[in-house]
Amino acid sequence: MLFSFENVEVHGVDRPRLAVHHLQIPAAGMNVIVGPSGAGKSTLLRLCNRLEVADSGAIKFHGADLNDTPVLELRRAVGMVFQEPVRFGGTVLDNLREADELIDEETAQTILERVGLDGSFLLRLADELSGGEAQRMCIARALATGPDLLLMDEPTSSLDPAATQLIEQQAMALSEAGMPVLWVTHDTAQMQRIASRVICLIDGAVAYEGPAAGLFGSQEPSIVAFLAEQPS
After folding, report:
1. Rounded CA gap, 122 and 45, in Å?
2. Cα-Cα-Cα-Cα dihedral of 81, 86, 92, 97, to 10°?
3. Confidence of residue 222 (pLDDT cuts 50, 70, 90)
4. Rg of the chain (C-alpha set)
5. What is the pTM of this model?
6. What is the 3-state secondary structure (H, E, C) of 171-211?
7. What is the DSSP letter of 28?
8. Where do the domains of the chain lie, and which CATH numbers do they carry?
9. pLDDT digits (tens, 9 = 90+) for 27-46
10. Axis crossing angle, helix 131-143 with helix 161-176, rounded to the nearest 10
């Protein structure tokens, strides 16, 4: 297992933002965290690379205490892609060199091809890319450090359907090629398209984990209520 969570809690104002008694993230597949807004999805994701720190409990990475891994080392091993594409100044190649300053053009081109961008993008200015192209550049930048896992926090929420489809396809291709992905979404239709395993959070707790089909068969009232709110 890449990650394990035991009795992990992140405090909130009037209730815990996250209270996970037991959860494991495998070192394979497309693992999708789903749930309503405010369920703790992004909080769980951010714990994985210490953008947030739990108030109690134990998180292990490759079987060792997460806190024992230096933050910079951890963030190279656990790449993250955010909701909005984060662009640095300069070219796409300059952006990849923000992750690995020694990366050469041949290696950079190979990484771009893994996310569906050809070598001509290397010298394109990051600010001139479309939203979908910029998000794929961000995925490539996360891949430049050779991570063990990709964290993706609603990476298509600001994209149009065509760009969303491309990002989903590239993420699934990466997963199938051996790169584990932990993807956050509130959209159960997207979850059905991409997930090999689902983690459903309700009110900060794990309400379900397993195949997507099992989520729709659940009789847990909180899950039934969440699914009832989804667009038909």
Report:
1. 30
2. -70
3. very high
4. 18
5. 0.95
6. HHHHHHCCCCEEEEECCHHHHHHHCCEEEEEECCEEEEEEC
7. S
8. 3-228 (3.40.50.300)
9. 999 999 999 999 999 999 99
10. 20
Residue bearing tokens 């300053």: 101
At 96, list the tokens: 């990849």
Helices (H), the chain: 41-47, 71-77, 92-99, 105-114, 131-143, 161-176, 188-194, 212-216, 221-228
Question: Residue 114: what residue type?
Answer: R
Q: Give the model's pLDDT for residue 1.
A: 87
pLDDT tens digits for range 140-167? 999 999 999 999 999 999 999 999 999 9
Distances 113 to 119, 136, 153, 191, 215 between C-alpha atoms, Å: 7, 10, 22, 25, 35
- Are 19 and 42 in contact by the 8 Å Cβ rule? The answer is no
